[in-house]
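Q: Structure for this?
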Amino acid sequence: MSDATTAAYAFLAVMRRDLYVYRSYRTRLVSQVLTALFSLTLFYYVSRLVHVHGFASSNSYFGFVVVGISLISVLYSCFSIPELVRQELIAGTFDRLLLSPFGAIRSVLAMTFFPMMYSFVLAAITLGLGCVIFDLHLHWSTVPVALPVMLLVLFAFLPFGVLFAALTVVIKQGNVGTSWVVAMLSIVGGLYFPVSLLPGWLQTISRLQPFTAATDLLRHLLVDSSLGESSETALLKLVGFAAVLLPLSIFVLGRAIRFGQRRGTIIEY
Amino acid sequence: MLTAPEHAQEPSLNAAPLRLDRVSKRWRKDLPLVLDELELTLAPGTVTWVGGRNGIGKTTMLRIAAGLIEPDGGRAEVWGLHPNKHRVRYQQLVSFLPAGDRGLYARLTVRRQLEFWARIAMVPRERFREWIEEAIVRFDLADLANRRVDRMSMGQRQRLRIAMTFLPHPEVVLLDEPLTSLDTEGGDLLQGAVSGLLERDGAVLWCSPSGESLDINFDFHWMLEQGRLVAQ
């Protein structure tokens, strides 16, 4: 059997491990579905309470914000990687990953997949609840196209999580900066309101990062909202971010690990 | 019988299972060297014991030998391979049991822990089931196979950690205070695993603060003092 096949099995084993650990906490899914339900309820009534500039009806704003809520779970999954690495450092399992033939870098990349796939499921559940309970109208003809786009979105967001994971390896703290980055991205990415409401300089930042392109594109595919830029430009932006930042983030993670090995701090937590 | 060229990506006829060549390590500039041009060579089919008081540098030496941390000077080699340049092969040949009770996933069962470890140790697929069952039997884990780690005693966890260390059939095993929390039966199981490794011409480096009470014939006894090994 080739090394590539053995490595693929190792990659799957990391995902399976995360699934087993997840299943050992039996109430986690219930609590997350309830959280999604409460968020949907809140925004459903907010959409009925106020008239939002730029939206034809309460329903169109509700559709807009439901996609935003769905996407935030994907964003959180990418930014959960540093905390996962921190847990491995504390448990002493990071040493084992580092000293395995599979290695720490591939292990960190593999451990991103379960949370990302799970965030997919949560996003789907959120959209489903929106449809069933709150009469959200999905644009079904383009929903299948949203799936590969969602995968691309994950690859565009993943480097940010890997970069923060590299920081965690060096400074041993898992949540440094991640919560405010997620909060900032939810504002400049237009999760809850259109970015056209933001001041000019924030709109510029909004156009520079991939999150806005992702939300725009997915809203267009899921609820048929209008695009801020062409779908080709949005796709190109996501591909560009993934193609440039992913190898860069993996390189930085490798350097962070070597730094820890040289200084001897890799064993600290 | 294992031979160097069989394993080396850069074959070296003069290579040893493990060689620490003038290894130096200092934790901070204002502190003395923990390891000072330390030299150690393990021969095939031997068990080497290294003792020394707490904090003298035994664990640092093992971590460098395992490829976990890098020395400031000198190098570690396994069959002539470098821990970074030949990382995958190096890690297939060496297995390290760190001191303490860390390195386990608390929510996984024993069997799933072993399966996970076998996968990331990149055990050949055709050997995967066989080696896991072998580890379960050899370390008397059958009754615990479906028990979660956080529901096990310290001694049972140590047996699992030792099982993980020997599972991928390494050629060099580095043991840091392996008898911690083990009862007599656990010690006997470890002794059996070490004997099995020696029959395959593997090598063991065993570190502990003082001499072990086990009936193991250490081939070499060293004390670590002021960063260097002194024959005992």
